Amino acid sequence: MRRAGWRETIIVFALLVGLIAAPAAAADFGGITLPDYKHIDITMANGGDNYIKFDGGGLNALHITTDPSERYGQVTETSSQSGTFYFSDTGGRGFFDDLILMVAVQGEVPDDFKLHVKASGYQWTPTPVLNQPPAMEEIAYSEGFTDRVFTREDFIYAPQTWKPCREANYPIYYGQDMSRNNPEDRFHIMFIDLGVGALGPNSFLDGLTDDGCAKIEYSFENMETFAAFNAYGWCNQSNQGRGISWSNDLTGFAETGVSGYSVQGTRSSGDTGGSGGGGSSSGSSAGSSGGSGIRGGTLNASTTGSINGTLHAFTASGPTEPLTVGSPSTIRIPVAVPEGATVDRGLLYVYVSNATEAKTGAGTEFEPVFGFDGKPVTPAAASWDRQGTGTASMAGTFTLELPPEMLANGDHTLTVQADGESKVTCRIPAALLVLVVSDPAMPRIDYRIGEGCDDVLADLWEGTTEEDAATKTTFDGTIDRDRASAARLYIVSTAESDRGGIGNRVVLNTWDWLNPLQEGPAGVWTAALDVLPFIKASENIVEVQSYPVGTAGDHLQNRNAILVVRYGGEEGSSGIEISSDTVTAKEDIGSFVLPHNTAGVLEEELGYRTGDETLSLIFPKGCRVINGTAAAVTSGMIRAVTDLPPVPGTAMERAYRIGPENATASLPFVMTAHGKATPDAVWYRYDAAGAAWQQVATTINLTNGTVTAYPERFGIYGVATPLPATLTVSSNPAGARIHLDDTYLGKVTPATISPIGPGDHTLHLELEQFAPYEATVTVPDDTALFADLPPADGYTVLNRLKFGDPQTEPEQDRTGGIYITSQPSGATISIDGKKMAFTTPHVALGIREGSHTVQVVKEGQSFNTPTKTVWVERDCITPVLIETHEQTIVRKVSLSSDDYVGKGCTVNGKGPVFRLPRTIEVAGGNSFITVNDGDRYLSHRITVTETGETVTITPGDATCCGLLVESSPAGAEILVDGFRTGLCTPYLIRNISDGPHVVTVTRQGYLPAEQEILLTDDPKTETDKHLTFRLEAYPYGSLNVTSEPAGAQIYLYNKNTGEVTPHTFRYMSIGTYEVKVVGNATFKTADGVTVRPYEMTERAFNLV
């Protein structure tokens, strides 16, 4: 590093030159435009200039890392406004004389913006000798050599979308789509001379602080949008000459992998992920926000309280017409407060969606004007998030605080108007009125309200899982768990009518509900969940997830999460009253009147049957129905219940809430379910206090198909039937073919057989080179069978294939593998930007299910398509071949179909599975789409000639063919066009259409194989095509990872595997691995973890 005196001379000289030659405007905010991407002088924000040369590659030696021991770095995306990262060197020269930090901030930079940078590292006098690193006695560590605050005025360069580098149009952050030239991706930039260098392994200096890396500590103030950091290296003497010729790789050009560091700003209520920009949350701010909203964020849960009374939540439908300038929208808001009660607090949440600029169609925020009964109301808060990626439309939630005096009983009118300057169009799907109602006669409730707007979409093709696409709400404060008598969680989201209700999940602490969100008013999706058994005494965490079905889940904008806990009071009252302005909510299936006479009893027998005719009630003559206060009940309501788990081991197609739930009949009444009669059907009543189902005496009439009970209390009732009997079969080793009663099931161990009829069955297992196994099982008494298979005579060495801890349940793992081959072979492999220590051909296991990129690089050899995207299925190995001369044109095409909406599809016989309609990328002009309509695999040829086309898939006259798939050894799972059939070789598949298909077979411990075929139907034979695969075994071992405490996330190849400790990765290729575990507050990494053939390698981590 340059010593202080030498450095100061250069800086003083540069300052003098600047005073003499530079015009004053050059230092203005955003006043300088970079003339080119290299061969330019750049001005440092802390004084001086540097020359960007960049005549060579320059992307393999300099990295950004959060851990000095991980020199090749990683991509870090964080929302923390302060943190630490390092610049590291891995180049052959072994050092950088000086380092420059590039800071890029997206969009507008506030006047009060501040960035504090503190840089520490080694300094030395640059040597005049080419590529010669300094000696130990020539270096000195400088703590905080650069330590200053930078402000808005230090951004002297005009906004741009690229960073200086070896080539034009190079991205500023990882994942930036440079093809669109998106104006939302314009950044203000500054360059900071850190004044310290970096020393790498090839400097041959030991015992260095931070392993010779430069340490950068940062903290932002008032950084609202999105920021990215980049590294530049300067050398006095190198093969590239003097100047800056190195930066961190963001595109995967270098073999050493990508690295970067970006920070999400403070305006986002929904995390917008790594594509820059974000949403916003403020008092009433507006402005443009870029980025992708499909990753989840948090809702603000600061609204809390405690009161004797109830919380009323009313959802009002918005207008069907969009909101435009000069055309206000109105929404009817009814208020109905019970007699004797008063409104303590009123909150009105107004939902905005599809907000776009009228001229450009790009998504934008704006400031609507609100009125309530003609009086202007200013929002107390506004939250925005983007409904997708790039310039997609925006969604927002506005919070209006309404004083109690404005909330008298009766109808009220909310008006929403876009002022003349907004020039936007949007939809107002709904508004949610929340009233906190005080009633001294009612028990106490605690309420907590989460509010905001967070757009989420789990799309495994785009790399977002349900964990990524999750909106988190943390309800702080204590709950008296012992005294709580009821707890209700109410979730409100919005979604387009065709993008919700199929793939969503709500998680509260350790419990989850799959698909509880169902549509109420058009475009509004709600869930009301009884959560008393699952709440904790403090820090209750709610997650609302988009949950992938196939590859994608619901595309949701999560708006509100409300938790109400009631203490004491009558059974059945939850403390929250939920209603909407729809004519009949989906849960409401009937109501009835109880006409008591003057004596307070029914004069005649009263019968009632729901409109859907699934339930009937008969109240006998002389019956009196009263509530908890002994007053006569004059009417009742019947609702369908969808949010309770069924009785364990049973199926409960429908449960009913007969209300009011605290009502009691003086005589038993007749409750009959129609069309549900089976010999083993049973009525159950749900005990809310004990959070358990209790069996009720039941009468079954199989002739007329009725199931009847005779209760005296209203409440929640359901008819349950036992689930079909199941038998789980496992073996050691796994992979044995399962025969039941002399019939091969097309399954291998471990597997679950369901349904299986009651009685005795003969179970037979076969595995090559192991002795066959046979046993008799009795169903339903026997639910699981495990077979320890001994090797056949003369094959005792095969005992090494057994595991000390065998798998006894199917689908326990979340990972699969990729078999990478190249022509020519011997190419270095990178997965998701991380360079591997392996070369082709190689099988990489322990890779999380989902989309991954594979890249190969070989010295002296070029590949036309060096990078491919691969879909990984759990417990499967996906083959990928990268050839030297393979070159295809990739085009985007929109697929639509009236007949196959929502059906699973694949492209060119490869996963992932997606649902129609969908915009996809297609390689080549002649392709085919396969649709799984539930029963068949139907291929459809498509021709794509230009990007942006729309292709409509219509059913043809498909003929199903017979395809016999065999393998040696047998027991390999069969995939047809990327769809898992659930069948294993040998098996005759009869539900596959004529036309093109790709058949893949995969078995653990063997390399996968696949073949493209063209099927035609021969009506004279059952088998139209016969495929036989010979599978090649590979040497493997196992890796067992544990930690103290347990539950830490496990990383392989620098990627989260989705597994947590303790976990065993089986069938891992032999070799050396880097293993990292991440706990709540720390992480540990172990290099050199070697997996040996047919052995268990154990690695334990102490995270305490």
Question: What do these coordinates show?
Answer:
- With 1104 residues, this protein is mainly beta.
- The strands form 20 sheets. Strands 16, 17, 19, 22, 23, 25, 26, 28, 31, 32, 34 and 35 form a twelve-stranded mixed sheet that branches. Strands 36, 40, 41, 42, 45, 46 and 49 form a seven-stranded antiparallel sheet that branches.
- The longest helix is centred in the N-terminal third of the chain and has 18 residues, at 4-21.
Features:
1104 residues, mainly beta, Jelly Rolls, Chondroitinase Ac, Chain A, domain 3, 7 domains, twelve-stranded mixed beta sheet, seven-stranded antiparallel beta sheet, 50% strand, disordered N terminus
Gist?
The chain has 1104 residues and is mostly beta strands. It contains one helix and 84 strands. The strands form 20 sheets. Strands 16, 17, 19, 22, 23, 25, 26, 28, 31, 32, 34 and 35 form a twelve-stranded mixed β-sheet that branches.
